[in-house]
Amino acid sequence: MSNDVVVALDVGGTGMKCALVGRGGEVVHAERHPTLAQRGPEAVTANILDIAAGLADRARADGLDPVAAGLVVPGVIDEGNGIAVWSSNVGFRDVPLRELTQKRLGLPTALGHDVRAGGLAEARLGAGRGQRHVLFIAIGTGIAAAHVVDGKALGGAHGAAGEVGHIVVRPGGPACKCGGHGCLESIASASAVGRRYVEISGEAGVTAYDVATRAAAGEELANQIWTETVEAFADGLLTAQALYDAGIIVLGGGLAEAGEALLAPLRLALAQRVTFHRLPSIVRAKLGDTAGCLGAALLALDHLEETR
Ligand SMILES: [Zn+2]
């Protein structure tokens, strides 16, 4: 039995999920902290380093041996050079997070992208286990994907792969925060679904999850919006499938909480659209909001393997 653990941090816009994870992917210890993004990127960076160092100290105090660290953050990440290039919700601009963490902890460190890390964990430890071609799609405030092939998440030439949320499914449609119009994300993200219902009904505080529940209960407006959501999603998935030819599509993030209320009509709508494409199976993610942190641990372990 090895005492080796890796320090894993998933840094989000509001909170950080942190853990000590063993070589088999087992979580030995977990903690959560606020990101405190409003204090600015330098404070966030200092906070990350303190928490990571604290976890390594805790591991040693518990008789464990911290051997590496994995850090995942949102935005555009230069994984090769370990730099958080750009992130709107945390405020990072070219922060050399890998080097800073490596120096502070004295441990080899990997830096990755939150959604790609989540997809990596789902592909290797969760709903995509045993599949070679996995497309993980996180549907929350935005929509982003991770294409995982043979247990590796592909980041693209510029660390910006997997932006399926910006596939244009309704040309000339609603404005998207990327500057475009009619992107999948502007129609089918959890925030877009809730916002559309609120705009039409005038009722405040309705979430995408509420819309799904009300649609299932037969409410007309909810039904109409949910149907539009599923159809936009199926259009986006058709393009994604043409590009990736996934064996399995794993849906995670807030909207996936709707479960079969989303999956069942989505499978049907995609099946109606395919021509030459082979249909992937479409399933719900298994690891919940710990996927990113587990993915950070996997990146750390992979990094150790590669540098051995
Ligand atoms: Zn967009």
Q: Can you offer a commentary on this structure?
A:
With 308 residues, the protein is α/β, with parallel strands linked by helices. It contains 9 helices and 13 strands. The strands form 3 sheets. A 5-stranded mixed sheet has the order 3-2-1-4-8, sandwiched between helices. A 5-stranded mixed sheet has the order 11-10-9-12-13, with helices on both faces. A 3-stranded antiparallel sheet has the order 5-6-7. Strand 5 and strand 6 form a beta hairpin. The longest helix is centred in the last third of the chain and has 25 residues, at 220-244. The chain is globular, with a radius of gyration of 20 Å. The two termini are 20 Å apart. Zinc ion (ZN) is lined by residues 166, 176, 178, 180, 183, 185.
Corresponding CATH superfamily of the largest domain: ATPase, nucleotide binding domain
Class inferred from helices and paired strands:
alpha/beta
> What's the average pLDDT?
95
Total domain count: 2
Provide the CATH architecture of the largest domain: 2-Layer Sandwich
